[in-house]
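One example copied in:
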Amino acid sequence: MAQELLRARLGLIQGVSDGLLKDLTDCLRATNPPVLNEREVNEILQAHAVTQDRTGRLVDMVRNKGDQASFIMISVLEQRDNLLARNLGLLTDCIEEARMNRWDRSSNP
């Protein structure tokens, strides 16, 4: 999933509004266990003045936490802005299906 976030990074930077960014950070902080802690959310929201910079920092931070954190972010994005997720190819069902198809092809030469 981290690879999918990397692939969609530019589209996320261009497509995420300030309101959606705040929704994403709130949801990622509210998961159990939290994907982001309070300090990380403050770093994202206060360290950068431009929404695009904040979004890039969020994507990088979550991606560096691995596939599980990336999957959670993609799931939250899907719930909060399904159109953006769809346009970027970040629908969890489609990603899982593509991963299984790649796995099937690699295990059956």
